[in-house]
């Protein structure tokens, strides 16, 4: 199905309270969201959402879950899907893989015809075998690990965004464009980042690593690490961390001790607006991060306006919002193409036929497509954007020196 171009993380605790108040769902449980049906009058189409609202994945799952609810309500306000309102039933696996089967089975018993898997990667991995047993399709809105959609048991699971495997090529393009040949790395000590560093840094032959410095995720001082980086005289510094307090401390220290040195970071800092306010004045100025939100994309602009109306003018849109929105829209399109939600095999075939969907994240020309052998939606590298921070410690827009092309 070709779609026309006109179709269109303190933070965790605060958002967790909002999410729990909205959904009423605790660890391992499930509940029913009751969006109004708008002008849709038929029997509701039930979508199950496995949302980690209290566990390790809550920092991003709550953000995405909130926008999933906005998307469902928006569809209902516009007549629903085939004249029928969408209805969410919600469970919480706490990013615990052992809880996933029970959560999905309960959601299915409540009538879910498809799932949105908004949880941690390990939990989503466990969901694959359960989906095969239930014979129901699912989308993982914010997944970025390709193993989520790799065999085995991948026939019924889909994801949208570029994976970490694409990041190395984008960084290399950026370093070459900026004449950066010597790189220093400042990293935290989490297992998540250790695995990412291995996958990422080993695939960047475009630069020589002249120094790698590590600090504890709860570090209170990184001066010694940054001093050693300075002595190594890199052309640029890449910070790899899960974000939060470590990232802020790293950027504060780098801005003070290595003023004027180009700095790059992962996506974490761009998707954690609460962290921006904790940075020293101007400490993020010039920092370039791997992002997916590009305000040159008109669909991103439209979603930004909608979310500001819903959440207030100071709301900062993240990739989690856009990917959540697009996941709901893709399910809507698949249900329409299948003629309804009740035949799971037909619905799964309809998802696999979606092609050329203009995404709400990424660059203006970025699209999403699926097929029987392509369960990762990203069409090329331009689902990623290199975004630069301004002097006000807020992202000011795409980095002018380099942007990923839409070709792989």
Description:
The strands form three sheets. The chain has a seven-stranded mixed β-sheet with strand order 8-7-9-10-11-14-15, with helices on both faces. A six-stranded mixed β-sheet has the order 1-3-2-4-5-6, sandwiched between helices. The protein has a two-stranded antiparallel sheet with strand order 12-13. α2 crosses α11. With 408 residues, the chain is an alpha/beta fold. The two termini are 22 Å apart. The protein has two domains: 11-162 and 296-377, Response regulator (Rossmann fold, 3-Layer(aba) Sandwich); 164-291 and 385-398, Response regulator (Rossmann fold, 3-Layer(aba) Sandwich). It contains twelve helices and 15 strands. Residues 1-28 have low confidence and may be disordered. This is ABC transporter substrate-binding protein. Residues 26-46 are annotated as: Disordered. Residues 44-367 form the Leucine-binding protein domain.
Number of DSSP E strands: 15
**What is the number of domains?**
2
| Helix content estimate | 25-40%
Query: Are there runs of 5+ residues with pLDDT below 50, and where?
Result: 1-28
Pfam families: Peripla_BP_6
Protein name: ABC transporter substrate-binding protein
Region (Disordered): 26-46
Domain Leucine-binding protein: 44-367
């Amino acid at each position: 199905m070709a779609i026309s171009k006109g179709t269109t993380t303190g933070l965790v605790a605060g958002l967790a309270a909002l999410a729990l108040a909205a959904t009423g769902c605790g660890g391992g449980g499930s509940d029913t969201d009751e969006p109004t049906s708008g002008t849709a009058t038929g029997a509701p189409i039930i979508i199950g959402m496995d949302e980690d609202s209290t566990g390790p994945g809550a920092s991003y799952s709550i953000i995405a879950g909130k926008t999933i609810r906005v998307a469902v309500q928006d569809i209902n306000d516009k007549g629903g899907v085939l004249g029928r309102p969408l209805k969410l039933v919600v469970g919480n696996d706490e990013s615990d893989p052992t809880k996933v089967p029970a959560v999905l089975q309960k959601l299915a018993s409540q009538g879910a015809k498809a799932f949105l898997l908004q949880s941690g990667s390990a939990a989503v991995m466990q969901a694959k075998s359960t989906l095969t047993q239930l014979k129901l399709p699912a989308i993982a809105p914010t997944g970025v690990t390709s193993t989520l959609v790799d065999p085995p048991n991948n026939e019924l699971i889909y994801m949208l965004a570029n994976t970490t495997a694409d990041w190395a090529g984008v960084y290399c393009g950026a370093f070459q464009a900026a004449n950066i040949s010597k790189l220093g790395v400042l990293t935290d000590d989490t297992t998540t980042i250790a695995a990412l560093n291995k996958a990422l840094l080993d695939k960047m032959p475009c630069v020589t690593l002249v120094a790698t410095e590590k600090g504890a995720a709860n570090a209170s001082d990184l001066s010694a690490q940054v001093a050693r980086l300075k002595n190594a005289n890199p052309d640029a510094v890449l910070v790899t961390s899960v974000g939060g307090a470590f990232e802020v401390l790293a950027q504060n220290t780098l801005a003070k001790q290595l003023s004027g040195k180009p700095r790059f970071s992962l996506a974490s800092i761009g998707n954690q607006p609460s962290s921006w306010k904790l940075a020293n004045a101007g400490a993020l100025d010039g920092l370039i991060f791997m992002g997916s939100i590009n305000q040159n994309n008109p669909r991103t602009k439209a979603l930004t306006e909608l979310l500001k109306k819903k959440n207030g003018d100071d709301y900062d849109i993240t990739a989690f919002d856009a990917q959540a929105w697009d996941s709901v829209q893709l399910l809507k399109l698949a249900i329409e193409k299948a003629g309804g939600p009740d035949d799971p095999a037909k619905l799964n075939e309809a998802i696999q036929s979606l092609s050329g969907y203009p995404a709400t994240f990424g660059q203006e020309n970025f699209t999403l497509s699926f097929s029987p052998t392509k369960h990762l939606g990203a069409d090329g590298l331009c689902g990623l954007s290199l975004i630069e921070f301004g002097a006000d410690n807020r992202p000011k827009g795409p980095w002018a020196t380099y942007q990923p092309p839409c070709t792989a």
